[in-house]
Amino acid sequence: MKILDKYILKSFLGPFFATFFIILFVLVMQAVWFFFDQIAGKGITFDIILKFIYYASLIVLSQALPIAVLLSSIMTLGNLSEKYEFAAAKSAGISLPRIVRSLIVFAIFISAANFLISNYVYPYANLKIINLKLNIKKKQPALALVPGSFNSEIPNYQIKFDEKYGEESNLLKNVLIYDLSERKGNKKIITAKKGKIVSEEGSRYMTLILNDGHFFENHIKQNTTYEDKKKMPASYADFDEYTINIDVSALDKDDLGEEKYTKNFNMLSLKQLKDTVPTLKQNYDEYINGRAKTLGLDVRVNELHQYPDSLINKKLNPIILDNFELKQQVNILNTALAKTKRSINNIKNNKESLKQRRKVLNLYDVEFYNRVALSLSCILLFFIGAPLGSIIRKGGFGLPMILAIAIYVVYFFTNSFGKNLAEESSVSAIVGSWIAVLALLPFAILLTIRASKDKGLFDINSFLSPIINFFKKLFSKKNKAI
């Protein structure tokens, strides 16, 4: 390695590692912040929190590297240009591509490392952190209660509520509870307008205090006939306050390191994704074919036949209903209307299920292509940052930091927009994953060309000179005419 390459690489590595660790810290704190308010004061030990931070660090590694490459390339080349070191090199006949040759090799190396991180480290960290979150919620059942759907994490109870609020998120609104503790099905039902979860560290019970509600219990014995069940008594009552003590000691036996979820799209390597996607597509196609066959059987498509002209009764009226009496016409129309409504309802009911299945399939497809695109983003952002730094001729953390943030925000939102479009089937998975790269690639090429020719970011004269020349010619013609 020549002295110039060593010097350029040494000038780059300092800002790179500094910016990398700063960005990594910021991203980890952002990830921890969203979850920390849920686990703070809930009896979670410090070693579990450290595990969470460790896995969060591994997850954001692949995001921190492109930002670090972008920021450090702007800073390094801006600093070299600001000190006129680039001018000295160019005066000696050394071109910009030759000056940054060692940095290009390093950017390719970082891109390859980012690919390995995305393919092996990122899925492993997601596997660990998702299972850790779920196991923490099982240790603290109040954390697992989600508004808007039935929650079955708490033993012997099905709990549903509209909203969770309050400083500790322990206040519930419009609560519905099925008490299954007697193993007799949904025979005991409790509703309340408000509820409160009270749990103490180390206690085997979680207390649920309900206010302004209704209690109903159907007293049905086992092995009774249907007629006897209708004669069984039921008890019901209104209450101002009702307290339920739920035994959650069984959850303490669960291991926080247990891994029950291993097949999520963000837990698989590229090879595993490639093997999983065909199976998902086959299941999706089978589901669509099954729905289509059901619809066909419902409207009796198989009974529709095309008869030869020789078998058609010429005496029949072409308007089919006119061949029947009025009462029969009404029956036919009612039957047709009922079948049509049933088919429409089936289509509406299956619409959300079909949409969800397609979205799950898209998630796996998008994840596959997005990891490759994210790895190559290191090279792309380097070819934006390096020429931009040499053009602005400004080092340090001031202007380079602003430019790096602005460029990465554009990349991030474009990438997120493309992924969302692909997940909703508006565009293909490969287009949605690569749309950010395709959007910024012309900008990278333009900056590289202008920096190689030692031109500014925007040459205003090139835009103004044609306009000025036009008006000069116009006024000169007027003067001659006078």
TrEMBL record:
<feature type="transmembrane region" description="Helical">
    <location>
        <begin position="12"/>
        <end position="36"/>
    </location>
</feature>
<dbReference type="GO" id="GO:0015920">
    <property type="term" value="P:lipopolysaccharide transport"/>
</dbReference>
<dbReference type="GO" id="GO:0043190">
    <property type="term" value="C:ATP-binding cassette (ABC) transporter complex"/>
</dbReference>
<feature type="coiled-coil region">
    <location>
        <begin position="330"/>
        <end position="357"/>
    </location>
</feature>
<keyword id="KW-0812">Transmembrane</keyword>
<feature type="transmembrane region" description="Helical">
    <location>
        <begin position="395"/>
        <end position="414"/>
    </location>
</feature>
<protein>
    <submittedName>
        <fullName>Permease</fullName>
    </submittedName>
</protein>
<keyword id="KW-0175">Coiled coil</keyword>
<dbReference type="Pfam" id="PF03739">
    <property type="entry name" value="LptF_LptG"/>
</dbReference>
<feature type="transmembrane region" description="Helical">
    <location>
        <begin position="99"/>
        <end position="122"/>
    </location>
</feature>
<keyword id="KW-1133">Transmembrane helix</keyword>
<dbReference type="InterPro" id="IPR005495">
    <property type="entry name" value="LptG/LptF_permease"/>
</dbReference>
<feature type="transmembrane region" description="Helical">
    <location>
        <begin position="52"/>
        <end position="78"/>
    </location>
</feature>
<feature type="transmembrane region" description="Helical">
    <location>
        <begin position="368"/>
        <end position="388"/>
    </location>
</feature>
<keyword id="KW-1003">Cell membrane</keyword>
<keyword id="KW-0472">Membrane</keyword>
<feature type="transmembrane region" description="Helical">
    <location>
        <begin position="426"/>
        <end position="449"/>
    </location>
</feature>
